Amino acid sequence: MQYNPNMLAAELVDLTSDVSPGQEFNRESLHLFCSPLFLKAMYALYDKNIQTISCGSGKERGILPGITCGYDTLSEKNKAIAKDMIISPNHFRIGTEITENTTFLDFEGKLMKIVDKFEKQPNN
User: Fold this and answer.
1) Is there a domain that residue 82 lies in?
2) What pLDDT is stored for residue 12 in this prediction?
3) Beta strands 66-70 and 91-95: pairing type?
4) Contact predicate 71/90, CB 8 Å
5) Where are the alpha helices (DSSP H) in the chain?
6) pLDDT tens digits, residue range 40-95?
7) Parallel, antiparallel, or unpaired for β 52-56 and 86-88?
8) Quick check: is 92 in a domain?
9) N or C, fewer C-beta in 10 Å, the chain?
């Protein structure tokens, strides 16, 4: 599917591929597993050594569209940032709502505003 920055985010939110548990991936292969809508934020999280678990609409679990990350792998400073985003004992969600008028750039910008708060941490 071709996409452009002015596309509606709702058109892109579910373009993800299945990732098997324990499947290894690296920065160069992230685009194979997630929608272009999440890619910039996924790259930034990867570069900050923040463990990502999944990304997508979240509608099947009743959570915001966004990226689920490992909470227990965070540094203490990053845990403080993520404390209001916890969705389970070991996971937090970086997400934001998508309305019928939300564009690709709007959504990406909102995600990045949250991701930018996190600090790079040592490899786990």
Assistant:
1) yes
2) 57
3) antiparallel
4) yes
5) 36-47, 76-82, 104-115
6) 999 999 999 999 888 877 666 667 788 989 999 999 999 999 999 999 989 999 99
7) unpaired
8) yes
9) N
pLDDT tens for residues 20-50? 445 566 788 777 777 788 889 999 999 999 9
Q: Tokens 């923040």 sit at which residue?
A: 50
Provide the 8-state DSSP code for 40: H
Among 31, 32, 39, 34, which residue's Cα sits nearest to residue 5? 39
Separation between Cα atoms, residue 69 and residue 51, nearest integer Å: 6
| pTM of the entire predicted model | 0.81
CB burial string 93-105: b at 16+ within 10 A, e below: bbbbebeeebbbe
Which one-letter amino acid corresponds to residue 88? S
The edge-to-edge listing of strands for the beta sheet with 91-95 is: 52-56, 66-70, 91-95, 86-88
Domains held by the chain: number: 1
